[in-house]
Amino acid sequence: MSVEITAVPVPADLLDVGDHPFVQMATVFNQAVMFDIGLDHLRWEPAEMLPDWHDESYRMHRGFLARDDSGRPVGALQLVAPCEDGATEIEFDVAVLPDARDGHIERQLLERLEHEARALGRSALQTYSIHRIDTDHQRLPSPSGFGSVPIDHHTRLFLDAGFTLAQVERNSRLDMTESHEGVRAMLDEAIRFAGPDYRIVTFSPPTPPLLRESFAFVLSRMSTDVPAGGLTITEETWDAERVDVRDARIAAAGLTVSVAAVEHLPSGRIVAYNDLGIGADRSRPTSQWGTLVVRGHRGHRLGTIVKCANILRWRELVPESPFISTFNAEENRPMLDVNERIGFTPLTVAGAWERRL
Ligand SMILES: CC(C)(COP(=O)(O)OP(=O)(O)OC[C@H]1O[C@@H](n2cnc3c(N)ncnc32)[C@H](O)[C@@H]1OP(=O)(O)O)[C@@H](O)C(=O)NCCC(=O)NCCS
């Protein structure tokens, strides 16, 4: 099948835009993912994406649609690249509708990706594939030795296109409709274990001014401290101003976010955090964003504290949301230990892929 690939314009807003290519791009992704995993918790919401696309201070976004002869959108490509000096990576998502998957459209979209990456001076092409956990395909093991992905349509596509499996992530869910007495007990025990130097601080954006600078530091560590497997990751630069920009984007996207952090009382700095987010439809699943404890403060159960404190706060704030979805590298035992103890169970599996130009 031959297709025409065109750049997706970014609308100023989504009022009266009708079937805009920006919305069509999200629809292609949503239909493809629904077919692949039979679940819609990873659904893209155009209104929630738009503020990120408008502000290119820290990350640039590009979108492309592949249309067949009749003009029907059958494939989509999204590119996201960090703007830090010297960054070489470009992350992408590629999707083709189930009834148009003959391999050709995927390949044409990957050719377009390569063209755009070269034009932007990027040499590390990265993506994530998402898979069901209950398939009977043969498996490709993670280079970390932890986890594997099924050798299905997506795995073959990326292997054939010269990508290497860089890491395997477990996507897990925590049922939010059940009692959380166990989470409360874990939190109480962890607070006792951590001792009097640490205090829980919770907030929803905007970030309190006194905390912005140390919150910026913990956010920046997500790019350096999370196990990255074989992925090329540029260290992100964060300051109080970038926290403000992030808070403004969260507000413009209509998201509800909760942060549970730990303040180290002797220094007055945030040394651990966890944040959860959801869009305007609060009956949807919740996304777990980041969890991090600053090196030097690990092993005091601060990871357990921020995670449990935020789950309990979320239950009060957004009781309609049925579950929390999180992604963790299969080799990230400290994080998986905490999550498994809380009650997270596997939902889908993701493969991280990289190809160097
Ligand atoms: C994951 C992380 C938040 C855990 O923080 P923490 O404060 O050390 O967590 P806890 O003290 O609550 O430890 C939880 C459990 O992890 C396990 N654990 C901690 N450090 C470990 C290590 N180095 N190796 C193996 N297991 C470890 C222990 O079983 C511990 O249980 P314990 O309380 O019985 O000792 C922290 O390691 C971190 O910030 N890592 C980098 C960022 C990251 O990977 N975030 C998750 C992204 S998905």
From TrEMBL:
Q: Which InterPro entries match?
A: Acyl_CoA_acyltransferase, GNAT_dom
- Give the superkingdom in one word: Bacteria
Q: Which residue intervals define the domain N-acetyltransferase in the entry?
A: 21-181
* Pfam families membership: Acetyltransf_1
What is the recorded name of this protein? Answer: GNAT family N-acetyltransferase
The scientific name of the source species is Microbacterium memoriense
